[in-house]
Amino acid sequence: MQSDLKILNLALDLKILQPQILHAKQISSTNTYFLQNHPYPNGTILLADYQTGGKGRHGRIWHSPPGQALLFSILLTEIDDRAFLHVYTFMAAVAVFEGLDLLGGSTFKLDLKWPNDVLLGGRKLCGILVQNRLVGNETSQIVIGIGINVNQPANFFIGELSQGTSLNITLGRNMDRIEVLKRVLVGLDRWLFILGDSGETAIFNRWKALCSSIGKRVLVNDGRQIYTGIFKDLSSQGGLVLETDGHCRVFYAADVTLTKETSDVGCN
Ligand code: BTN
After folding, report:
1. Which of 89, 115, 138, 239 is at a distance of 20 to 30 A from 58, taking alpha carbons?
2. Could you give the residue ranges of the DSSP H alpha helices within 37-171?
3. Could you tell me if 24 and 7 are in contact, meaning their C-beta atoms sit under 8 angstroms apart?
């Protein structure tokens, strides 16, 4: 273990995740650390106060000022061969949603955005990056990286971050990051247990129940073309099923936005 990692005992009663977590004041990226350093047991968590090279989707950088966001990764070494990577993304998003939902009152509106965001009041509160390490053709470990904007002030979200928000902005008060972490980990632990016990169906169903854009008209940008249609469902592998002119297309990597004239449409 690196000497600059300390152990923090969260004193939580967990089935799969390790309550004794690794803590770094500064690290390049919690995801990259786990992908490069493997001698840790299943369910180890690494929390950082600051990342100098935080990773986002599509090779983007994940920016967070020191000590203000919750930046952590979970290492999984006992992997269900049948589960697709998207399942872990959905599971993390559901756990973040459920863990934070009771923090605010009626104006505290969380939502899920396919494939990996948790929104608060329509703005990005949390991003999730799931990565795997392959040995030959086999996934030997999965790293679930979660970044939650906790205490950043409004003036942090400018320029390319202008679609972001933090708990502080909506709640009007600073939050204890460890308390927020504990809320999320309790749910993650429960969903990991459910995944191991009965497979991914419950996770998919819960994700769909919490995602307000299912059944709505959306724009899907796959980097080459923009499609408009109804977000009908998740495919069995977690892809976005878009219905356009009676024809279904499945996307595995794309950006989704609700259209302005969003209408509710059934999605049987
Ligand atoms: C996204 O682009 O929305 C995904 C962002 C994921 C950021 C988190 S922060 C903790 C973990 N370590 C990383 O380098 N990235 C993830």
Report:
1. 138
2. 85-100, 167-171
3. no
Contact between 145 and 243 under an 8 Å Cβ cutoff? The reply is no
Task: Name the token pair of 233.
Answer: 């469902």
Q: And the tokens for 47?
A: 């929390």
Backbone torsions φ then ψ of 89, nearest 5 degrees:
-65, -45
Rounded-to-integer distance, Cα 69 and Cα 265, Å: 37
Give CA torsion, residues 70, 76, 80, 82, to 10 deg.
Answer: 60
Report residue 104 CA to chain centroid gap. 20
Report the atom number in ligand 1 closest to the C-alpha of 147. 9
**pLDDT tens digits, 62-120:** 999 999 999 999 999 998 776 788 999 999 999 999 999 999 888 899 999 999 999 99
Residue ranges lining ligand 1, Cβ < 6 Å:
29-31, 51, 54-57, 60, 62, 71-73, 116, 127-129, 145-147
Alpha-carbon distance 115 to 254, whole Å? 8
Question: In this predicted model, what pLDDT tens digit does every residue of 204-217 receive, in sequence order?
Answer: 999 999 999 999 99
Of 58, 85, 146, 163, which is best to mutate to test ligand 1, by the most ligand atoms within 8 angstroms of its C-beta? Answer: 146
Mean residue pLDDT across the chain: 92
Q: How many Å apart are CA 60 and CA 1, to the nearest integer? A: 28
Mutate to test the pocket of ligand 1, among 23, 26, 31, 149 (most ligand atoms within 8 A of CB): 31
Contact 214, 208 (CB under 8 A): yes
